[in-house]
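Chain A, query sequence.
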Amino acid sequence: MSARGGGRRGRYPLRLRRGSVSWERQKPSWREARPALIAEALTEAQARPSGNWYVIGASRDVRSGRPLGRTVAGVELVVWRDESGQLVAGPGACPHLGAPLKDGRVHCGTLICHWHGLALDGGPFAGWEPVPAHDDGVLAWVRLDRAGGESPLDRPVVPPRPEAAGSVDAVYTGFGVCEPEDVVANRLDPWHGAWLHPYSFVDLTVLSTPAEGVEGFAVDVSFKVAGRVVVPVRAVFTAPEPRTVVMRITEGEGRGSVVETHATPLGHDERGRPRTAVVEAVVAASDRPGFTAARTAAPALRPLMRAVAGRLWRDDLAYAERRWHLRSTGRFPG
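Chain A, predicted structure.
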């Protein structure tokens, strides 16, 4: 497999990049990254059903014995695990005098308010009503029918992933002043990769787009390791629901691995600006013999995987925030 493109996987994952050019000499991508094409892909994504499900974070963020507080679409929520380990979610304010339930304690699966001891076992009580919650093994979700306004689904739209027993997952969470559509639009613009993230991506070529009658955006790209050493792959970007974009490696090293980007609206800040959480799940898999050792070292790998995602999202959130700012002031050229 060459350093540019998918093709057959070699014996070793690394390649020496040939004929490399400096950042400013690479082929401009602005002609191919047509605003109408990105807008059409975004519109199609927004038309797909979500069933009113929202990602709130990593499954492992909701620990036994400790409640977790989240705000989604302006709704204050508390999430915890019952005695069987199942996810429970509902309003974050105690129905008695409004205490923040995220500061309570969980004892034997029951959430106890730290103001006056009102106890919630996950069922309706004293005006407190649970909302549907789902743990897919990597991410935790809640269903908010009033906020979503769609026909509800029993389960969220979770894209296919590598088997948990043969993969390593890590979840990054970041926050931006924008709306979910701005995050999704960023992910549906694969052309920006080698320009905005030259420290991570080189030799990026978009092979096909949904406008050509195929599913998603197919991309050949090389992940930069050090100097001229790269890992080339082919990846496909798809949007299975309005607030999710999935990048799946289809050829090359780590075939089958996925990066799921979920955009969750939080509400508005003190200046009335929308805030959105980016929850990105990286589920890496490989049939290389050494990957078994990598899975064993997963607790040590996860912080590194989150750091890599965080560096990319510092740039991508700036893109999303800029897009929202221009839209909100009527100056967005797209």
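The chain has a mean pLDDT of 94. The chain has six helices and 17 strands.
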